[in-house]
């Protein structure tokens, strides 16, 4: 019986095989998830309808199950209309969740095309496609090291 809140069997199977430095993408509803998978990655589609399931719900479930050492958002290009508006509201939600879990990590944006390259890497093991409609909600997590007695 699982002790964490993540109960999706396929996601548990994939994270059970993953190790330190493996990457998991929580993709929003606009992300081209199928054609950006890394060579070792699998896609789990949780996009039931617009807004369901959300990226923050997936993040909470994942944080109950695995250690995280890095969290990267897709940086907003300077020529994007959203760039002048500051950080998207969803990033604040991510920061709040990371702080609540006392991980001691910062949310770090990486440039859009570097983000796509990171997802296409051999370390990418899982994309979880959500139905989240928030703009710039894609979140790339790097699995950390499980500490003794965890």
Kindly describe this structure.
This protein is α/β, with parallel strands linked by helices and 150 residues long. The longest helix has 12 residues, at 89-100. It has four helices and six strands; from the N terminus they run αββαβαβαββ. The protein has one domain (9-143): RbsD-like fold (3-Layer(aba) Sandwich), CATH 3.40.1650. The protein has a six-stranded mixed beta sheet, with helices on both faces.
What would a concise description of this structure say?
The chain has 150 residues and is an alpha/beta fold. Helix content is 25%, strand content 21%.
Write down how many β-strands occur, each being a DSSP E stretch of 2 or more residues. 6
Strands of the widest sheet, in order across it, are: 2-5-1-6-3-4
Q: Can you say what the CATH homologous superfamily is?
A: RbsD-like domain
Kindly give the count of domains: 1
CATH fold call: RbsD-like fold
The CA-CA distance between the termini, in Å, is: 16 Å
Oligomerization category of the chains in this entry: single chain
User: What share of residues are in beta strands?
Assistant: 15-25%
User: What coarse outline follows from CA principal-axis ratios?
Assistant: globular
How large is the radius of gyration? Answer: 15 Å
CATH architecture tag: 3-Layer(aba) Sandwich
What is the string of SSEs from the N terminus onward?
A: HEEHEHEHEE
Overall SS class: alpha/beta
Mean pLDDT: 94
Helicity level = 25-40%
The number of distinct helices, counting runs of at least 4 residues, comes to 4
**Main sheet characteristics:** 6 strands, mixed
The level 1 CATH classification is Alpha Beta
Instruction: List unreliable stretches of 5+ residues.
Output: none
